[in-house]
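Q: Structure tokens for this one, please.
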Amino acid sequence: MLFDFTAVLVFVVVGVAFCYGNLALGWLLRPSIYGRDKMRIYECGEPTIGSSWVRFNIRFYTIALVFLVFDVETVFLFPVATVLRWFTAQGLGWVAFLEILTFVGVLVVGLAYAWRYGNLDWIRSTETTAEALDEPQNQVR
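A: Here is the predicted structure, written as tokens:
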């Protein structure tokens, strides 16, 4: 049993040694002279214009999270489809189908929630937010 994992252990040790060896070699060979130009912000070879701290709209993060959720769903559905064949051969195809249906159902509920509260709208109006929260529009929190 121990022999099965010695190859993995050797691979991990060699990989870690390779990474740290390259870092040490770079630390030894690189010049350590820091000037004013070395400490400036580098933007693809172009001179910086203004501040490098740019404000991004929060919508980018919301859309990225929704994309990530459905991307992970797609990644999980491929192995599940493969396992479905084994379940079907065992006579338990309906169990696997219910599991897949539950998984997709939870994601659909999450999508409906995000859609209902206007998280998928790029421009969010106060009317949409007030309708989703079932509040009067003139009420201030």
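A few notes: DSSP finds four helices and no strands in the chain. The two ends are 64 Å apart (CA to CA).
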